[in-house]
Specification:
5 helices; 7 strands; 30% helix; binds ligand LPXRUNBV; binds zinc ion
Length: 148
C-alpha cells in the first residue's frame, strides 16, 4: 500500500545491499608512460618484472528500492551470479596484466581494478543500480569507486 510509515511510502524505501567475493591474481605495477628508472622509483618492489600475487577481496554494493513483494533489492543469489560472471571468470587465478586487455594500457592498481569491475558489472545490471565497488589488495589497503 501507499500508507505513510514514519515518513516513508512503503514502496519507496531504498536499501543498499553488499556481496563480498575473494579472488587470487598476480600482477606487476608498471606504466608504459614512464622510463624503467621512473617505474622503479615510483612502484618500488611492486615493479619487479617477475610480478607478485594478492588475495584480493571485492565488495560490490547495489542501491535500489526494496521490492514490496519479495522484500529484496535483488536476490543475493542473483547478485552472486553477476559477480561470478565478471570478477571470478575474468580475474580469479589470472595474470591481470596479460589476461585482461584493459591492463595492457592501464596500470593494474586497486583503483583501476575497481574501475574495471565497475564497468563490467554495470553492463549486466539495471541502470543506476550499481553503487560502489571496493577492492582490498591487502587487509590494510583498499580502493573504492562509485562511477565518478
Ligand atoms: N594507491 C595504490 N598504491 C599501491 C597499490 C595500489 O593498487 N594502489 N599497489 C601496490 C602494490 O600492488 C603492492 O603489491 C601492495 O602490496 P604490498 O607491497 O604487499 O603492501 P604492504 O607491504 O604495504 O602490505 P600491507 O599489508 O598493506 O601493509 C603498492 N601501492
Ligand atoms: Zn601488488
Amino acid at each position: 500500500s501507499n500508507m505513510m510509515d514514519r515518513g516513508h511510502y512503503a514502496n519507496e524505501r531504498v536499501a543498499y545491499i553488499t556481496r563480498v567475493q575473494s579472488f587470487s591474481a598476480c600482477h606487476r605495477l608498471h606504466s608504459q608512460s614512464l622510463s624503467d628508472d621512473e617505474n622503479k622509483r615510483i612502484f618500488g618492489k611492486c615493479n619487479n618484472p617477475n610480478g607478485h600475487g594478492h588475495n584480493y577481496k571485492v565488495e560490490v554494493t547495489l542501491r535500489g528500492k526494496i521490492n514490496q513483494i519479495t522484500g529484496m533489492v535483488m536476490n543475493f543469489a542473483d547478485m552472486q551470479l553477476h559477480i561470478e560472471e565478471t570478477v571470478m571468470k575474468s580475474l580469479d587465478h589470472k595474470n591481470l596484466d596479460l589476461d585482461v586487455a584493459y591492463f595492457a594500457n592501464n596500470v593494474s592498481t586497486s583503483e583501476n581494478l575497481a574501475v574495471w569491475i565497475w564497468d563490467s558489472m554495470a553492463t549486466r545490471l539495471p541502470p543506476c543500480m550499481l553503487y560502489e565497488v571496493k577492492v582490498y589488495e591487502t587487509e590494510r589497503s583498499a580502493a573504492m569507486y562509485r562511477g565518478e
